Amino acid sequence: MPIDINKIRSEFPILNQKIHGKDYVYLDNGATTQKPIQVIDAVSDFYKNTNSNIHRGVHHLSDLSTKAYEAVRSKVQNFINAEQEQEIIFTKGTTDSINLVAFSFGERYINTGDEIIISAMEHHSNLVPWQMLCERKGANLRVLPFNKNGELEMDKLPGLLNDKTKLLAVTHVSNSLGTINPVKEIIEQAHKANVPVLIDGAQSIQHSIIDVQDLDCDFYVFSGHKIYAETGIGVLYGKEKYLKEMPPYQGGGDMVDHVTLEKTTYLDAPFKFEAGTANYVGAVSLGVAIDYINDIGLKNIAEYEAELLQYATAELEKIEGLTIYGKAKHKTATISFLLDKIHHYDTGMILDKLGIAVRTGSHCTQPIMDFLDITGTVRASFAFYNTKNDVDRLVAGILKVKEMFA
Amino acid sequence: MTLKEIQEEIIEEFAVFDEWMDKYEFLIELGQSLPAIDVKFKNNEYLINGCQSKVWLNAELIDGKIQFTADSDAIITKGIVALLVRVLSNRTPEEIMNSELFFIENIGLTDNLSPTRSNGLVSMVKQMKLYGMAFNAKMNPSS
After folding, report:
1. In what order do the strands lie in the sheet with B47-49?
2. Which of B76, B77, B110, B117 has the highest number of chain A CBs within 10 A, making it the mutation to test binding with A?
3. A340 Cβ partners below 8 Å, 6+ apart?
4. Domain A40-294 is in which class?
5. Residue B79 belongs to domain with CATH number
6. ∠ CA(A24), CA(A406), CA(B19), 5° rounding?
7. Mean pLDDT across the stretch B62-91?
């Protein structure tokens, strides 16, 4: 079903403004997505009418607050088709979710000499926590490489899996190259070797239908702000059998069963992992964002974005001297590129002056840039509120950049 | 020319541009015309790392004045580097230490000198002043 682009664009107030005197073209959706008015209003309404701390008050609004928060847990459960509600843990975001697993899973399961596999195209947030864990435990990090097109070298995976492997953590979609990785196949292979798998869903949750039971992943993590909700709210999905075994990540209120000065017993998951006052307003915004996405339909979104990607790729490829980095067969609407010898920062600065927001630099994936032997790229990342007109503006902007630096 | 005068001169040069585009084209020109830094200084020891663009800076004290040479991998950054070198090079350590740079804001390029841009320029200015302090301490060991 085609999406109603005019209606959608009218629902994102930030898009309807001028930057440096030009109609705003926002192509930095990989970094964060903009918020529909429904999300913005819901947050404002919540503060006006409902706000109270959750899980502790006997009073009416505290009860409503708690119910609103827990309702989102069940909404997220349905959204990613988790088997049980208690497998959904609210965090601050993807990075926080990964750090939680790196600590708690690490405490329970990782010992000296063990191995953890990641890919060479991970965002720093799915790399550094594992490096820290390996350092702490004397474990070793093994890396699955990718090829020139930005596709994982799947034939190398069997050689990495062995009886010392305790976890495999891989991104579903590369934030800098747009590659959609064959995570189902990776999970299957890893499971055959009895290795659990964490999927970094920061760049996939907003572009495709996620079914954690069908994927059979053991952990799936994502951020609310990349799926049209507020910043500071994220999700960790984990299979109950692991969550049950893993010790708490942080200590504090809201996660305890019984506390004396000598000893504390903890609640079960998810509360065991949600110490302190949760970002319940963020959770509420996530619930509204999920409703919004569901109304439009992720399938429709994916189709629309695929068409946008095809159009943008074709148009950008027409520009002489432009190189696209990341030419995987399966991609989300993210295009990384460079212009001849023009520095990505120079390109980004001029595009900004033309009212076009892109990201430049290494995109928190320095190992990818090292592999490609570049210092960074210009990245245009699209969302379903972008249009072919945005692509045309980008192309015109790039031609202007070329002219200025000729 | 004093520090103040040279900054005023730059402000005047930029005053002829009404359009941001012309201003940036001039910056690009400046960047392209800045003599390349000696290769021996284009390594990590002289690197001021920004997340977005890199800046290399070298300072030498010759006859009581600091001579700066610098470079950047991005041309717009390099254009501003050229202006900073023009303003601060060939001056005494004391002058550099106490310098007040007002021309960047005046020609409307503060965007580029905001620490959040992470292009190495803010650190470059800091580093230039540090060189001023260091050479000043060397010249006046008792003070």
Report:
1. B47-49, B54-62, B65-72
2. B76
3. A321, A322, A402
4. alpha beta
5. 3.90.1010.10
6. 45
7. 93
Pair A297, A270: CB distance under 8 Å: no
Per-residue model confidence (pLDDT) at position A223: 98
**Which pLDDT tens digit goes with each residue over A337-355?**
999 989 999 999 999 999 9
DSSP string, A159-194: HH--TTEEEEEEESB-TTT-BB--HHHHHHHHHHTT
What number is the ipTM of this complex?
0.88
Could you give phi then psi for residue A285, rounded to 5 degrees? -65, -35
**Spelled out in words, what is the top-level CATH class assigned to the domain A5-30+297-401?**
alpha beta
Residue B36: C-alpha distances to residues A182, B41, B71, B120 (Å): 46, 10, 6, 17
Compare all CA atoms of chain B with the CA of A406 and give the residue at the minimum distance: B28
The whole-model pTM stands at 0.93
Q: Which domain holds residue B34?
A: 3-139
The position carrying tokens 């284009």 is: B42
B28, B51, B73: residue with CB nearest A404: B28
Residues of A with Cβ-Cβ distance to B74 under 8 angstroms: 343-346
Supply B105's token pair: 């804001």
In order of A101, A191, A257, the CA distances from A195 in angstroms are 15, 5, 32
Tokens of A381: 């990342």
Residues of chain A contacting residue B28, judged by C-beta atoms under 8 Å apart: 346, 404-405
Residue A28: pLDDT over 70: yes
Contacts of A198 (CB under 8 A, 6+ apart): A98, A101, A126, A167, A168, A169, A170, A217, A218, A219, A220, A221
CB atoms < 10 A from the CB of A84, how many? Answer: 12
Structure tokens at A77: 């459960």
Per the listing, tokens 């000043």 go with B136
- Domains in chain B, number: 1
Q: Write down the domain spans for chain A.
A: 5-30+297-401, 40-294
